[in-house]
Design goal:
Length: about 270
């Protein structure tokens, strides 16, 4: 796919991976709009990056519809929509202990927001015979996020939805990509800027993710893996599921022993 002059929208674009994607897409010649839940923050980042900024809570279908309508009015028809907003809560104790509100939020943000964007955009994209839907899932959607059942479950659902979109609409000219990174130095892991992150194999910067995504979009790849090793882990999981579960239990025990927690912001340096 040629990215120059494409109109791209990124949710969760005020910082982290979303803002890096905005910078990379702009450098590739796309016309970019970012959105995020906090109006002041999105306005500030949009000003810094010199892109359009629009507040949108992706849990609300009417706000996603309004976001797409506003981009249409101000930039033109959306070519690329990147559903990138995300949250991580962590299980307070056992694997079903997170409150329903956290499960609902995770499901609404990681799955339903992707449905809302596709529901609004697909009829227009199908009519034009082209368009691109990109979903930021996670390696947790292919493997697992220890200590956050709601995150793991809803990221798996995000991958499943992306598969449905790709299979049902490839013949309509729609490109679907799903981004599945492992750990990235963003505010989600406690790093306000990537410079705050220690040098650690496996912990990559949002810019690294954005570079891989640009390449994946240009190649129209369905599965975009900023950490190539994830492919090996997925193969291991598929080859011997029981062995994989045992390995993950071992990693969980190591995390509790070494950092006293399975919170992603604590344990990511063990991976
Ligand atoms: N950081 C990682 O290690 C990592 C790894 C794999 C996948 N991801 C995924 O990458 C995506 C981006 O995360 P990030 O790492 O840049 O973290 P981040 O916290 O910097 O970005 C997430 C953004 O989503 C926004 N957001 C949250 N709820 C929202 C809502 N209801 N409506 C609109 N925006 C909302 C936040 O305000 C934030 O700007 C997420 O989907 C995350 O799950 C992150």
């Amino acid at each position: 796919m040629e990215l120059a002059n494409k109109i791209a929208v990124i949710t969760g674009g005020s910082g982290g991976i979303g803002a890096a994607l905005a910078v990379a897409l702009k450098q590739a010649g796309a016309r970019v709009a970012i959105s995020d839940i906090d109006a002041d923050r999105v306005a500030r980042t949009a000003h810094e990056l010199d892109v359009l900024g629009i507040a949108c809570d992706v849990r609300r279908e009417e706000q996603i519809i309004a976001l797409i309508d506003q981009v249409h009015d101000q930039l033109g028809q959306v070519d690329i929509f990147i559903s990138n907003a995300g949250v991580g809560y962590c299980d307070p104790s056992h694997a079903a202990s997170a409150p329903n509100a956290n499960w609902q939020d995770s499901f609404d943000i990681h799955v339903m927001s992707h449905v809302y964007a596709a529901r609004k955009l697909l009829p227009m994209m199908i009519e034009r015979g082209h368009g691109c839907l990109v979903n930021t899932a996670s390696a947790a959607g292919l493997l697992h996020q220890i200590g956050d059942a709601a995150y793991s479950t809803t990221k798996h659902a995000a991958v499943g939805l992306a598969e449905s979109l790709a299979i049902a609409h490839g013949d309509d000219g729609i490109t679907v990509c799903v981004i599945c990174p492992q750990y990235v130095a963003t505010p989600m892991l406690g790093y306000e800027t990537p410079d705050d992150a220690p040098d650690h194999d496996g912990l990559i910067s949002p810019q690294d993710v954005a570079n891989t995504v640009i390449h994946g979009l240009e190649q129209e790849r369905f599965l975009i893996l900023p950490h190539p090793v994830v492919k090996d882990y997925v193969l291991n999981k598929a080859t011997d599921y029981d062995r994989w579960i045992k390995g993950m239990r071992k990693l969980r025990r190591a995390s509790l022993d070494q950092v006293g927690s399975t919170r992603a912001d604590k344990m990511h340096l063990l991976v």
